[in-house]
Structure formats: C-alpha cells, structure tokens
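Hi everyone, sorry if this is the wrong subforum. Our group has a chain we'd like a structural model of before ordering constructs, and none of us has done structure prediction before. Sequence below.
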Amino acid sequence: MSNIPVGLQYSKEHEWIKAEGLNSAIVGITDFAQAALGDIVYVQMPKVGQQVTAGSVCGEVESTKSVSEIFSPISGKIIAVNSDLEKLPELINQDPYGAGWIAQIEFSAPPTDLLSAEEYAQITG
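Answer:
Right subforum, don't worry. Here is the predicted structure as tokens:
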C-alpha cells in the first residue's frame, strides 16, 4: 500500500501539491507513481520562468522500467526546481513527498479539481 499523506492534494495523474504561502505550491509525484516506475534514473524538470497549464506535460521521469510524463496539477509559473534531482534522481524513490519534490509553482488562482488524500486513495486502490 502506498503512502498518501493527509494535508496534500493530489491529481488523477499521480502528482501531489503542497501549498507554500498564499500563491505558490510545491509539486512532486506520488509514492504510488514512484513505486510503479521503479528505480528513477533521470528527471527532465520544467524550466524556471516557464508557464504551465493544469493537466499539461511539464517534464518527464525516466526509470529502469519506462519513461513517464509529469503533468502540472496547477496553472502558473515555475519559480523553483529541485536541482538536487539532476545528480540524485533517486531522491524521488527515497522521499517522494520531501527531498524528492520536483518544482515550485506560483499560481494566480488556487486549484479547484484536485483530490484529497482519501479520494486519491480510492483511485489507487
């Protein structure tokens, strides 16, 4: 069973979001997603300053099993990326909700179509 922390919000595409202040959020992929991918060997992150749209592809995660797209769970501007993942992509496997975060997004309107931990747990079974 995957770890699904309460207090975060989740997308149906297996990304998580954690509010950081009033208008930004930290984003990463869920424990369920990293487990399904296997050993992560490379992360193509979005660029700082890039505009992203909720539901659109903003990067990729490559594992020993496959390549999977990262979808932005919210619309806004990338204001930071986790540069540690360039040398240590396995941080996503080790700590998907902490050291394995991917990007910070500044948004103008809070997201409205994300799932609670309980709702996300229902879709991941």
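For your construct planning: The longest strand covers residues 57-63. The chain has one domain: 9-110.
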